[in-house]
Amino acid sequence: MSAVSVSPSTIHVRMIEDGWLESNFDTTYPLELRRIISESEYQESINKINRAIQVNKVLTIFCTIVMCTVIGTICSIIALLRIKSRRMERLKEAVAEESSKYSSRSPIPCRWRLDSIQNFLPERTPLTVICVSILISLIEMTSYS
Fold first, then answer.
1. CA 20 to 30 Å from 27, out of 7, 14, 45, 139?
2. 99 — phi, psi (to 5°)?
3. Most distant CA pair in the chain: distance in Å?
4. What is the pLDDT of residue 3?
5. Which is nearest to 46 in space by CA: 15, 82, 89, 87?
6. Count of Cβ atoms closer than 10 Å to residue 98 Cβ
7. Where do the Golgin subfamily A member 7/ERF4 domain residues begin and end (predicted)?
8. Torsion angle of the four alpha carbons 31, 35, 36, 41, in this order, in degrees rounded to the nearest 10
9. Residue ranges of the alpha helices (H) in the chain?
10. Which pTM does this prediction carry?
11. How many Å apart are CA 49 and CA 27, to the nearest integer?
12. Is the pLDDT of residue 68 over 60?
């Protein structure tokens, strides 16, 4: 004689979170499994499943450190580029302010501006040097005698 279950029942085996990336299924033997699966078979099966989801802790720590280092490096590069950009903007404003101060000055007016000069050294990457250029307006003075 065979028995057919009309209303199947479900046994849920919970996953227990033990920490970051550490979780295992509960190894407590459900009493509903009596006469279906032995306690030792259940333990063996759940332990096999738990081993399959184990994470290599050393590899996880290494990957986390690498990821933090990469993210930190990217953030640092972005921050340094923003600092350099703002510094250049303040430099341009300061030079323009000084230029306006001296451009209308008598007897000899001058203009200030930022320039960049490329220095090419043998077997090296070209070096860009930023400098302030002061352009002196030469006014010819003619004397009437």
1. 7
2. -60, -45
3. 140
4. 57
5. 15
6. 15
7. 23-99
8. 80
9. 39-52, 57-103
10. 0.50
11. 10
12. yes
Q: What length is written for the chain?
A: 145
Residues contacting 113, CB < 8 A, separation 6+:
95, 99, 132, 133, 135
Rounded CA gap, 42 and 29, in Å?
7
Q: Are 78 and 84 in contact (CB under 8 A)?
A: no
φ, ψ for residue 15, nearest 5 deg: -90, 135
Cβ pair 132, 112 in contact under 8 A: yes
Radius of gyration for the chain, computed over Cα atoms and rounded to the nearest angstrom: 39
Q: How far apart are the first and last CA of the chain?
A: 140
Residue 70: helix, strand or coil by DSSP?
Answer: helix
123, 131 contact by CB (below 8 A): no
Within 8 A by CB and 6+ apart from 105, the residues are none
Tokens coding 104: 């209308």
Copy the structure tokens of residue 78: 């972005």
